[in-house]
Design a protein that fits this description.
Shape of chain A: globular
Helix content of chain B: 25-40%
CATH architecture of the largest domain in chain A: 2-Layer Sandwich
CATH topology of the largest domain in chain A: Uridine Diphospho-n-acetylenolpyruvylglucosamine Reductase, domain 3
Bound molecules: flavin-adenine dinucleotide, FE2/S2 (inorganic) cluster
Radius of gyration of chain A: 19 Å
Strand content of chain B: 15-25%
Strand order of the largest sheet of chain B: 2-1-5-3-4
CATH superfamily of the largest domain in chain B: Beta-grasp domain
Radius of gyration of chain B: 15 Å
Strand order of the largest sheet of chain A: 4-5-10-6-7
CATH architecture of the largest domain in chain B: Roll
Distance between the termini of chain B: 49 Å
Oligomer: heterodimer
Helix content of chain A: 25-40%
Number of strands of chain A: 14
Largest interface: A-B, 29 and 29 residues
Number of helices of chain A: 12
Order of helices and strands of chain B: EEHEEEHHHH
Number of strands of chain B: 5
Shape of chain B: globular
Chain lengths: 288, 159
């Protein structure tokens, strides 16, 4: 399949990329790993006149320890994240979910910045960013902005990014002592996209009760969201099986469930509670 | 507007004028005549188009040739020695009958190369997971797994 024609630029610095973005405005699209954008261009659902490839900007690709948490460049690939010992120790759920995206070849190209910016309703990392309380740093000409993951995902394929902004860094705060994390997804058999996916970050006190919980869910509705009903039911509970089940039964509260060829809304509503319970149990297990 | 790209393909430096929308798979097949790289689905699913880009397996139907400017690309044609001696992975597919029609085989071999370069001793489950981006309509995968195990053993014994 052949895409529409476009002009291609491969800037080597963020400043140059931003200047190109300012110059070409709405005609331009940023290209990261290309594994959402190129398929859309092949089917001509996207026909940008200008592509600004971020792939040659080496300063956007890194994983650093920061204040006990992590700072990750937007162009870091799933493979780099899944294989990073630093991510495995400071934000294990991010490594776990990145290793479950699609397949090896796609993980070698797709990026964390592309995944979050695209806000695909079946993408894995938006749920993980919500559960970890990630802070997203954007760059525009002469300015930086920090957007909390809670405010970033606005709607189906829509984020809080302005057209002149590049998502440049993902900051993940340190996990408190006693915290366990886990990702559980019901994957589409062919693509591995999440039919539903749940990321759980749970802090267990020395008395075994839940001190705090952040649950991010994807696949269920038009965008990734936090399961706040589940979170508040968990906090203060003793995290035994019935407490986890009761809390997980709220995972779908308020969601306008997706209906498609992969699953009916009713089935997704069922799955989301099952997978929420699995993710929470695994997170509690990992906390000890 | 055509743009100049220079990259290394199977050890040789190549410079060409290409339209930005030319896919890496089509560049390899149509411009360089390297038709070992197959295009099966053209939708990023089947893995028949897999090549090595700077040491990582990628689906070349989902990469523009201009993105590979300056890169080091290896295709199936780059694996055997000049004297025709097969790469251990190719030998594995031959010895274990890891193919029937052969359409998926170039991609299977290039994915196996990525897997074994990063994990020289994969378990059966790791082989199946590592090749999950490659679809085969003929074999049922069983002999493909045996082929990769054959190659791993041979590559580890250094012979
Ligand atoms: C067959 C297949 C299976 C897949 N399975 C899964 C799966 O199981 N789970 C999953 O989560 N995903 C899956 N994906 C999607 C894949 O993870 C994509 O790589 C990802 O959604 C987008 O990341 P990218 O780096 O490829 O971005 P691109 O496709 O390059 O860009 C996506 C969008 O984000 C914008 N963008 C990219 N980077 C930035 C930035 N830094 N700042 C601002 N805007 C930016 C682009 O302009 C574009 O609009 C699959 C894709 C395919 C083709
Ligand atoms: S042809 Fe590229 S994945 Fe099928
Ligand atoms: S051998 Fe025919 S598709 Fe794999």
């Amino acid at each position: 399949m052949v895409t529409s024609s476009f002009d291609y630029y491969a800037p080597t610095s963020v400043a140059d990329a931003l200047a190109l973005l300012d110059q070409h405005g709405d005609d331009a699209k940023l290209l990261a790993g290309g594994h959402s954008l190129i398929p859309l261009m092949k089917t001509r659902l996207a026909e940008p006149a200008v592509l600004i490839d971020l792939g040659k900007i080496s300063t956007l690709s890194y994983i650093n320890e920061q204040d006990g948490g992590l700072a990750i460049g937007a162009m870091t690939t799933y493979s780099e994240i899944a294989g990073s010992e630093l991510v495995q120790s400071n934000a294990p759920v991010l490594a776990e979910a990145s290793g479950q995206v699609a397949d090896n070849q796609i993980r070698n190209r797709g990026t964390i910045g592309g995944s979050l910016s695209h806000s695909d309703p079946a993408g894995d990392l938006p749920a993980v960013a919500l559960a970890l309380g990630a802070q997203l740093t954007t760059s525009s000409s002469g300015a930086h902005r920090t957007i909390s993951a809670d405010d970033f995902f606005v709607d189906l394929l829509t984020t809080a990014l302005e057209p002149n902004e590049i998502l440049s860094e993902i900051v993940i705060p340190a996990l408190p002592a006693g915290t366990g994390t886990a990702y559980a997804k019901f994957a589409n058999k062919a693509s591995h996209y999440a039919v539903v996916g749940v990321a759980a970050v749970v802090t267990v006190g020395s008395d075994g009760t839940c001190q705090s919980a952040r649950i991010g869910i994807t696949g269920a509705g038009p965008k990734a969201t936090r399961a706040t009903g589940t979170e508040s039911a968990l906090v203060g509970s003793n995290l035994d099986d019935s407490a986890v089940r009761a809390a997980a039964s709220h995972a779908g509260d308020g969601i306008d469930f997706n209906e498609d060829v992969h699953a009916s809304g009713e089935y997704r509503a069922h799955l989301i509670s099952v997978y929420a319970a699995r993710a929470i149990r695994a997170a509690v297990e990992n906390a000890s | 507007m055509a743009q100049e790209i220079t990259l290394t393909v199977n050890g040789a430096t190549r410079t060409n004028q290409v339209e930005p929308r030319l896919l890496l798979a089509d560049y390899l097949r149509s411009v360089l005549d390297l038709t070992g790289t197959h295009v099966g689905c053209d939708t990023s699913n089947c893995g028949a188009c897999t090549v090595s880009l700077n040491g990582d397996a990628v689906k070349s139907c989902t990469v523009f040739a201009v993105q590979a400017d300056g890169a080091d690309v290896t295709t199936l044609e780059g694996l055997a020695s000049d004297d025709g001696t097969l790469h251990p992975i190719q030998e594995g597919f031959w010895e274990k009958h890891g193919l029937q029609c052969g359409f998926c085989t170039p991609g299977m071999i290039m994915s196996s190369l990525d897997l074994l370069s990063k994990n020289p001793n994969p378990t059966e489950a790791e082989i199946r997971e590592g090749l999950s981006g490659n679809l085969c309509r003929c074999t049922g995968y069983h002999n493909i797994v045996l082929a990769v195990q054959f190659a791993a053993e041979k590559m580890n014994s250094g012979s």
